[in-house]
Amino acid sequence: MSKVNLIESPFPLSQIKGLGPKRLAVLNELNIYTVEDLILYLPTRYEDNTVIDLNEAEDQATVTVVGEVYSTPTVAFFGRNKSKLTVHLMVNNIAVKCTFFNQPYLKKKIELHGTVTVKGKWDRRKQEINGNRMFFNQQVTESAQFEPVYRIKEGIKQKPLRDMIRQVLDQATIHEWLSAELREKYKLETLENTIKALHFATDKSSLLKARRTYAFTELFMFELRMQWLNRLEKTSDEAIEVDYDINLVKHFIDSLPFELTDAQKHSVNEIFRDLKAPIRMHRLLQGDVGSGKTVVAAICMYALKTAGFQSALMVPTEILAEQHAESLVDIFGDRMNVALLTGSVKGKKRQLLLDQLNNNEVDCLIGTHALIQDDVKFNNVGLVITDEQHRFGVNQRQLLREKGAMTNVLFMTATPIPRTLAISVFGEMDVSSIKQLPKGRKAIITSWSKHEAYESVLNQMTAELKKGRQAYVICPLIESSEHLEDVQNVVELYESLQAYYGTDKVGLLHGKMHSDEKDEVMQKFSNHEIDVLVSTTVVEVGVNVPNATFMMIYDADRFGLSTLHQLRGRVGRSEHQSYCVLIASPKTETGIERMNIMTQTTDGFELSERDLEMRGPGDFFGVKQSGLPDFLVANVVEDYKMLEVARDEAAELIQTGVFFEPQYQTLRSFIEKNLLYMSFD
Ligand code: ADP
Ligand code: MG
């Protein structure tokens, strides 16, 4: 099928006036191959050169002001080819010293007592403007007042690029993407006007209007695709109905050493509804650290067994796989045949296991990504669960989806996805949330101490150990590196704590250790043969030692909020009061703020929202790999409300089936073929 164009041009890119082969090559480097690409090559930002009154300008702001020249400009040369031009201006009755670096040619153009317009950074205290541009007519001309700025490369400048865009925009046909109803309903512009305004806006309000329409369009297209995908996944012919035995499942739940929380029950019900329905489940189970997702997974896997199916549980690390296997064997007793497959299961042992799996002698297989290798063949798999989903890249997620193409999938994550991102990143999935911790849990008390207070933190830790509890000491790095000399070396810390508490009381865990060694240490800590575990972030994910009630995080400001939260989640797993002490002497505002946020809240959902606010969606933990497209204009955080609306509208179109009527044929093919700039890997 040929590429569907919603933008048509009467001529190809190569026939644009003023575009020789050299420039064409540069455009190609910018990923511009067609007229459509060029038209959708939107400015990355706009320069606002609107003149303001200096009396109202904030300190350190970039300002554009008009002033009268009252000193002859002087130029001082220094270094190689460097210069500084100084000129004094009277701006809104303020005497301002203006400097321009490396623009000596300005001197000739500046007339004493003439008027100039200057753009630069205002330093109120020094009454100085560090200029970067100078305009010489009375005012900035209208076209220069609001300038689009494109990402460019050597070989092409802003203006010619802009001229080319103007040329093609004048001649191309831009088909409308949104229905008239939608445009009417949300007061949106036509796409043609929108794109033109994005390139040639002369004022802020028309730009904002265009931005709004374009953002909506992007989000709407994205959501259409997500909803469509969701529908395809669910209505596949190969869907299986899991006819579980509810009585057996109830028995099993009754056999657990605790009662399920309401949130756990609710999630189980949602999952069971999916299992029983003739659809392929495609669900995300998100629950804060310690909320008890594992047991929910266990109940589901058991339900599968009662219906005659096998299930798989995939986890990101071997330590976690082993822990899960152990605790599941505990929980299931002889109800289920649990097997463990990791990278360290090799040779004959592995072959035996694979045979058993193939003969349906294994009910539940737990493992790392070793699970999705080619030779792993289930007899009858009805459910695949991934734990700590955020640790898997999108590839594994996809691979899993392909591998288990005919089965139900449950993704579990302990990184609560901010509400804002959940519907975009996981927009094609259903979501269950466990927003409640098991009964009797006391909120972890988090405090923040500077490095000087290390001794007293140590005393606090000793007091906990004396009560029979255990402690984690977390350290950012394994070996000291040149750049991070001040980072406490985990080995050093380990040795000093050994000296303090006794050699056999303290264990060490880090990523560079052999997996046997890691297991041994973890086992010892789990059995309370050691009191203190000094570790890097390898314990971040999933580890469950309820007797550990104290955590000290060294140089905590080097971790992001999500990581800190994950780490902290290793304590607070029993009815005992738990503590988390952050040791940090942050030097940046963000560092300080992060420490403060950590001491203020233990709610992972709130933390993830704050983390998102502080870091932006691009940097948010795991988001990069989760398939969220790079929108040209829309921002999933700022435009969240719009995203919700777009989602509802898209869902309506898909669910009512209107989207599959002839009038949407073009849009459908378009979304299928080339979702404008939206890369889904
Ligand atoms: P996570 O959601 O972080 O994976 P886990 O499944 O590891 O949490 O559960 C944390 C701890 O809470 C485990 O020790 C588990 O046995 C316990 N737990 C789970 N559900 C409950 C419950 N309803 N009541 C009491 N303890 C529970
Ligand atoms: Mg877990």
UniProtKB/TrEMBL annotation:
Domain Helicase ATP-binding: 274-434
One GO term (biological process): DNA recombination
InterPro entries in the record: ATP-dep_DNA_helicase_RecG, DEAD/DEAH_box_helicase_dom, Helicase_ATP-bd, Helicase_C-like, NA-bd_OB-fold, P-loop_NTPase, RecG/Mfd, RecG_dom3_C
Organism field: Staphylococcus shinii
Keyword Ion transport appears in the UniProt entry: no
Alphabetical list of Pfam families matching this protein: DEAD, Helicase_C, RecG_dom3_C, RecG_wedge
Catalysed reaction, written as an equation: Couples ATP hydrolysis with the unwinding of duplex DNA by translocating in the 3'-5' direction; ATP + H2O = ADP + phosphate + H(+)
Protein name per the record: ATP-dependent DNA helicase RecG
UniProt gene name: recG
Documented EC number(s): 5.6.2.4
